Amino acid sequence: MSAAFAGDARALLLETFQAAVAAADPLQIVAQHLPAPHAGGRTLVVGAGKAAASMAAAVERAYAGKATLEGLVVTRYAHGMPTDHIRVIEAGHPVPDESGEQAAAEILAAVQSLTPQDRLLVLVSGGGSSLLSLPAEGIPMADLKATTRELLRCGAPITDMNIVRKHISRIQGGRLAQASQAPVTTLIVSDVAGDDPSAIASGPTVADPSTFDDALQILRRYGAEVPASVQSHLERGARGEVPETPKPGDALFDRVDNIMIATAHGSLEAAAALFRQRGITPVVLGDTVTGEAREVARVYAALVREIRAYNAPFATPVALISGGECTVTLPAGGGASKARGGRCSEFLLSLAVELAGMPDVYAIAADTDGIDGSEDNAGALADPTTLARAEAAGMPGQRQLDAHDAWALFDAIGDLVVTGPKRTNVNDYRAILIL
């Protein structure tokens, strides 16, 4: 271990993850971005996402005694928290369900009741695409669920998934703003690479540059087989038989203010600051890293090997930090029916396999929302002993990677990172510490 750092590497990685999450904590950051309390008319607060409940609580705290609030937000199951005036409903994620559909219908109806003298405050965060699910006319909720599962299975990146979602929704792709006669202020916690507001929660109050034809091309590109109702709706839209989502330049957006309040880059910088305090040089590799999780890990492993062999392009001790959202493509036909975990644990296991016990290399990969994929962990930790300990526990690394079951391996050796829901989401946090 480098003499420049004599601390506990694993503990430091956990601290930096906590710093990244804290930088996106709505209870700490929402108040500074809120408009002045509305003096006349109603103030309706609606929202959707993994941070929706904590954002709503932050609004109530900031406006206490200054404004009369009403409204409804929808968040993922187990992500709720107590509020006084803004109702919180929990619903399904990443696959939508009827609870989310009912909440979205209530939200749309409430927004449609507003007048120009009222104000609409919208709270948007990652996960909102599935939580704010109100299928277009003629598309049953069962078909929306099936479409979501298929897009997840085929490994479509979130931006492409959301283009499809916008065009089979009555509320996303700017349609929520279109329904409001009142001025709209939207606070956004970004969970997408590049922080494109039209992609976050499928942009309910943001102009949508994508088209029905784009959605159809995405389905073809990934070989996604969707229900007939979805296919028919998209084809009718491409023919001009269904109105497009509102586009950039539409006058309706003159009364809409979309404000980005937390981003992946901000969280990476918070982690980088902590590494600097501990005498370790942080290198931010980017907040827009996408691609197949195991392949991204192989690229990172090549960089680690270069640093370890030649102390270049970065001298040790160094921390390689990145954010974004990778994907895990499962085989069609149920070939990975025992797959457990998510993109963070798969990235980390692939990295461990590639590095094969390389000394003085430690890593963390965890989702800032506290949930990595299908289980209840945020992610996992890896160190030079990971593969050996896993082998001793009957969990060969390559076998578990091939089965897309990294969770079982990290669970067996006690290296899962379990935080519970963090009630925010600026996507994944990855840090590789080379001493």
UniProtKB/TrEMBL annotation:
Mention any one GO cellular component term assigned to this protein in its UniProt record.
cytoplasm
Region ranges (Disordered): 230-249
Q: Does the keyword Oxidoreductase apply?
A: yes
The reply on keyword Oxidoreductase is yes
Q: What is its EC number?
A: 1.1.1.81
User: What spans are recorded as compositionally biased (Basic and acidic residues)?
Assistant: 233-244
Q: Report the residue ranges that make up the MOFRL domain in this protein.
A: 318-428
Q: Pfam families from the xrefs?
A: DUF4147, MOFRL
- UniProt GO MF annotations: glycerate kinase activity; hydroxypyruvate reductase [NAD(P)H] activity
Record key words, sorted: Oxidoreductase
Query: Which top EC class applies here?
Result: oxidoreductase
Q: Which residues form the MOFRL-associated domain?
A: 13-235
Query: What is the superkingdom listed in this entry's lineage?
Result: Bacteria
Concerning InterPro entries, the annotation shows: GK-like_C_sf, GK_N_sf, MOFRL, MOFRL_assoc_dom, MOFRL_protein
Q: Which PANTHER family match?
A: GLYCERATE KINASE (PTHR12227:SF0)
Q: What name does UniProt use for this protein?
A: HYDROXYPYRUVATE REDUCTASE OXIDOREDUCTASE PROTEIN
Lineage, uppermost ranks: Bacteria, Pseudomonadati, Pseudomonadota, Betaproteobacteria, Burkholderiales
Q: What gene codes for this chain?
A: ttuD3
